[in-house]
């Protein structure tokens, strides 16, 4: 989603829906090696940290060849699991295009990979973030339904001029969500966290950030930062509950109500919040 960024222009090689052929053969040996390195490192770090559903979904990324996944082969496996496929796009795409892909169970993934000197940090989503971060959960039937519902809700939010509010829901679930699993154990599932070597530890172990119980309306009021580790994470109880709560609700009256309410700064903790951890915010002060 590109919410907030300036008008994007479609490159001449891209189709109307902004897709491009992945052209798997264009990736160099070095680019495949960077994928393998990132993949190795993160798959080792995630058991016990990532939601069980995510770790199970990693299977879908084990293809016949190492290196950056071939989207044709990957999509075939993913379609069998949940009806989703992965399509290549040059980079960020306009919101309506993005939503339309999701609404039709297509996940748009960037057709480039970070360089070896950028392993730990990159602001633009590359194929490692998009595929390693997002695709495993798309193999989970419940999360797969959530993402489709989100796409449809996104198209709908455009009619209400409420895309900014809805984008926050995406940010605090799909990108940076935490989940409570067996034994009250906190786990990560957001793609921005699972694809980050640093944040997959920070988000769970650091005393710095707030960890608050998920509340739909509250989340849609909360600002976020895109340039560093999050200062607040929201914790869901299950993917089933998240899907139910968002799919069944009519967001139209919610958008209307939100229009009258102020946005909440990132670190605000409300009386009404379920506080799992009150962060020290030391990480930010030290930066
Ligand atoms: N129920 C939401 C609406 O009425 C759609 C939606 C579903 C949005 C799931 C986000 C996630 O717009
Ligand atoms: Fe992402």
TrEMBL record:
Listed pathway(s): Amino-acid degradation; L-phenylalanine degradation; acetoacetate and fumarate from L-phenylalanine: step 1/6
The residues that hold Fe cation are 129, 134, 175
Keyword annotations of the record? Iron, Metal-binding, Monooxygenase, Oxidoreductase, Phenylalanine catabolism
Q: Which cofactor does it need?
A: Fe(2+)
* Entry-linked SUPFAM superfamilies: Aromatic aminoacid monoxygenases, catalytic and oligomerization domains
* GO MF entries: iron ion binding; phenylalanine 4-monooxygenase activity
- Please identify the protein, giving its name as recorded: Phenylalanine-4-hydroxylase
Q: Which organism is it from?
A: Pacificimonas flava
